[in-house]
Amino acid sequence: MTDRTQAARLARRHALSLLLVLTGLLMLAPVHWLFVTALQPAGNAFSVPPDWLPDKVTFHNFSAVFDLIPYGEMILSSLKITVTVTAGSLITSALAAYAFARLRFPGRDVIFFVLLAALMLPQQLTVIPTFILMRNLGLVDTHASVILPALVNVLGIFLLRQFFLSIPPELDEAARIDGAGHLRILFQVILPLSGPALSALAIFIFQLYWNDFFWPNIFLNSPGKMTLPVGLVALQGSQGGAPALVVFAAIAMIVAPVLVLFLFFQRALIESVASSGLKG
Amino acid sequence: MATATTSTGSTTKHSRRLRGMTARRSDTVAGYLFAAPAVLLFLLFFALPLLATIGLSFVHWDLLTPPRAAGLANYERLLGDSHALRVIGNTFVFTFASVVLHLGPGLLMALAVQRRSSRPLKYFLRTAYFFPLLISWAAVALLWQYAMHPTFGVFTHYLGALGVPTTSWLTSPTWSLPALLLVDFWHTIGFTFVILLAGLQAIPVNLYEAAIVDGAGALRRFWNVTLPMLSPTLFFATVVSFIGAFQIFEPMYIMTNGGPGDATRSIVQLLYETAFRSFEVGYASVLALVVFAVIFIVTLLQFRFARRWVHER
């Protein structure tokens, strides 16, 4: 009797597992379709049903992307913006988080809560005045217009402050007795102990700006200055539409680095998104 | 070890006294200096634009000729603008459907995955559900635009194989919004899934053990243990999904351009077009304030509710 119910339970559990594996594969199928199609020679394009395991592949579509749009420049633009924004906002966040976690000064808590309230501000609320500001400064269609507003990350300040608060204050007080200034304490005591928080935040900011479309689409117009997502959409719309296979190769080249990043930093990525409570 | 502890203890006390006497002023200066980069950037790119958006909502301005005072004209225009109101309505429909899709299937997926004992299986499922979230919306939108193509789209093909009549999904007045919801689900479900899974794993096992001792079946355990314990997480996920979905822009902008007609236009797309295509800065600012107002209200609700469940705990 118990044996039979156990067997039934086992079967049920495996049926559910099987169903779950199927849903997982279904979620991954579009990505697989993307890579398989991007690797197809022109004649084979978009066979229906698709060739899920093609025996002939070519990298021709990938090189064609570089002929159609300044893809190299776009990669450099994306990298330049994303790396600058990540490094810059880590620094401004760490400095501010140290002030809010470790220093006492008049108005500290008020300033901190005003900053926190900004987590509610949607991008759309600030984009119009910022566009006008950038236009008056002559910065529209420069990378500065994308980088500057991104150099402050309220969420980063908040997360790092929480992490700094968990580091025993005795550590930096000891350093203080030894004559270390605040900058030294931050960079030589606090930050070396904050590796997990810093890397989670860095990955989160990196993928956020690597993927962002809304803001760079408004501020960057010259193809050479566009970031990859903006350039990708421009490529598809170019001259009555680029060849579909070339667009696929371009999409694949945006997805591939994220895929690699994900496989290496899965834990940190998932945790950073979960703890941030914000969508990419 | 014991001596080390006492010595740090005494230096702490010593340094506290030191700090109280001499270090306070340097704390203040350093505090302002350290917070300054973030605070100045914040003022320039958050606080100032927020005030400016409010100010701009009271002017007519095309960015070329000087701005003219508009009084409440932009606000009055919104009340009589059936096009804009329809778009706002669309956005609410999209948002509610998106939240329901995330919370319902998302909870089922989290419940199912939590029970799996096999680590590789868990790892695979977490990866598979979460990965699309990391792909740029631009790439997601283009990929699915091809997948939903009426003739060579892989999505269209397999639906056809299941007996669903072939439609041009993205240009159909009936099906374009559901099609975008599906793409939104594919892209964003990993977020809700991860949050709900974390919430489920935080529920103490002994609550379930106690319920079993009391003779509670699976359904009762779900109603009396899982749901109440998960309710804060569920509420948080609802609010964050709502805020995210209400600001949706890329899939409609790229895949359907808001069409056919206005079937899939979202308020952020309308804002974008009003500001950067027809250069009606004042009216676009009113639309931006509508987005803000909705998000503000939802966030306030979150805090209200949070206070209630924190007390209950």
Automatic annotation (TrEMBL), chain A:
A Gene Ontology BP annotation from the UniProt entry: transmembrane transport
Keywords carried by this UniProt record: Cell membrane, Membrane, Transmembrane, Transmembrane helix, Transport
Domain ABC transmembrane type-1: 75-264
Signal peptide (UniProt feature, chain positions): none
GO cellular component terms, A-Z: plasma membrane
Organism superkingdom: Bacteria
Family statement: Belongs to the binding-protein-dependent transport system permease family.
Protein name, as recorded: Carbohydrate ABC transporter permease
Organism: Streptomyces bathyalis
Lineage: Bacteria, Bacillati, Actinomycetota, Actinomycetes, Kitasatosporales
